[in-house]
Amino acid sequence: MAKKSMIEREKKRERLVKQYADKRAALKAIIEDKEKPVEERFKASLKLAELPRNSSPTRLHNRCQLTGRPHAYYRKLKLSRIMLRNLGQNGEIPGMVKSSW
């Protein structure tokens, strides 16, 4: 299981991404707009740089919902490979059976 501090840090990042999403989108729209004067776009880029780094969605990392494991993550199920195997063997995931041949 992942450290509690890492799981909490990831939750904090998710909160910050939601909190600043609109502000970041507005500033990025100003920066991308070639019709605006260069000074205004530059000021918008400086304001974007002043926002917290953890408010950027690229800093988010997928983690297993049960264990917090960051690697071998299945997006569709939001589980790591280890928990997927355990739950599949116990019959807790519908339609998944242990293979045998």
From TrEMBL:
It comes from the Bacteria. GO terms for molecular function: rRNA binding; structural constituent of ribosome. One of its GO terms (cellular component) is cytoplasm. One of its GO terms (biological process) is translation. Transmembrane segments: none annotated. Belongs to the universal ribosomal protein uS14 family. This is Small ribosomal subunit protein uS14.
